[in-house]
């Protein structure tokens, strides 16, 4: 996920910079290239809309119909279904950037916890349809697995930046343990389990996430 207001230094920021490069998507200035770009975006957004409706494996004809293009155009723009899904995941990362704001690590801990949890819950809920679809195809796609690894690394890096003042006070072993614990409950797999396995509403899932964050930090000596 995007970086917060901390100085741009260290391994965590390096991982975030890689994610920023991944999601960069500027429309070309050339007219023909720009039209092709818009067509690709329409196809991607059509696939994402079908995912949001619960169709996690939409057929190419359905995607084409939703996008208002021919089936031939779909395959002119994308070499195969994996390429289309990878691009849909990239599009979600781009949208993700618009959902987040910098969290100042100098703010009180209680403020940072609520800001981080509220923001992360919104992102996880918004991204769920495409990530559900990607999960079905990840065993067969190296690129989707790499995307997942980048997403998780970026999320962990953001967490380390937001809670850097507290983490800096801990010995290395305790610091790693706290980071891993907070990261484990703020990734999409945990959110999906709350929403599907436990049947919690988005509000209930967010409240559980918030209380668990506070408990873990309190256990480490931060209130």
Strand content: under 5%
The best one-word shape is elongated
- Give the SSE order as H and E letters: HHHHHHHHHHH
> How many helices?
11
Structural class label: mainly alpha
The assembly state of the depicted protein chains is single chain
Query: Which sheet architecture does the biggest sheet show?
Result: none
Number of strands: 0
Q: Compute the separation of the termini in Å.
A: 25 Å
Relative helix content: over 70%
Mean pLDDT: 85
Which regions have little confidence, pLDDT < 50, spanning 5+ residues?
1-24
Estimated radius of gyration: 19 Å
Explain the overall architecture:
It is a single chain. The chain is mainly α. It is 74% helix and 0% strand. It is built from 11 helices and no strands. The chain starts with 9 loop residues before the first helix and ends with a helix. Mean pLDDT is 85; it is low at 1-24.
Brief account:
The protein has helices spanning 10-23, 31-52, 60-67, 71-77, 81-99, 109-137, 142-162, 164-167, 172-184, 188-197, 202-219. The chain is mainly alpha-helical.
What's the arrangement of secondary structure elements?
Layout (H helix, E strand, L loop, with lengths): L9 H14 L7 H22 L7 H8 L3 H7 L3 H19 L9 H29 L4 H21 L1 H4 L4 H13 L3 H10 L4 H18 L4
Question: What would the keywords be for this entry?
Answer:
0% strand; mainly alpha
